[in-house]
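Sorry to interrupt, but I need a hand with the structure work. I would like you to pick a protein and set down its sequence and fold. Please put the record directly below this note.
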Amino acid sequence: MVTTMLTTMNSIMPTESAMKPTTADHGEDLALLGLLQLVSPALPIGAFAFSQGLESAFELGWVTDEATLGEWLEGVLEDGLTRCELPALARLQVAWAKGDDAGLAEWDAWLAANRETAELAAEDSRLGASLTRLLESLELLPPGPSRESPALPAGAGYVTVFAWMAHSRGVPVRQALLGFAWAWLENQLAVACKALPLGHTAAQRLVERLRPALVAAVDEALMLEDDALGPALPGLALASALHETQYSRLFRS
């Protein structure tokens, strides 16, 4: 019996050669850790202060519970992130890799033009500025301008700076998009837990419900041509505009 147990344990234990790290493994590991750092709620850029119009949806009675929150998030993901932030992030990361200053400026401006309210525009610019200041203090800003390393566009938005960090950390484009979508979902659920309120167990049920949707959103975003891009979120735009004059609020957007 003891011999059988030892044989079984030996069969499931990794071999010594399999446990030895390689340079390639280190590169992938560092890229993953860099992405986790970038999407962490602990990143000190103030993302917790913004709800992207969700707080107004609570106030208006459009989102009242777990079920309606799930519907809202699915809609924003499908008609918003999938056709705006995610494909733009992919294009921006490619532009960083190619040293394409014109491409960086074009997609950064395109994103800014798609912010339909003052609060949404302010959120993007303030988070971009906060992340830029953080990277400057960590000496992680692009050294540009040069063909190999262009400079950040003036007043770059959050997605553009995020793309630089993903590129500089060696994060594959697809993984960068998944990380960005995950950070968005975590932020929205944190807002709901504070303001709806939504219990933490309910929030985790929504995570389980929406994880496949995040993957599907990234799949679609990576296939879209330029002329198919652009968000279609009139409800979110209206909620965001009404939030500007909402009497009582916890969040800045």
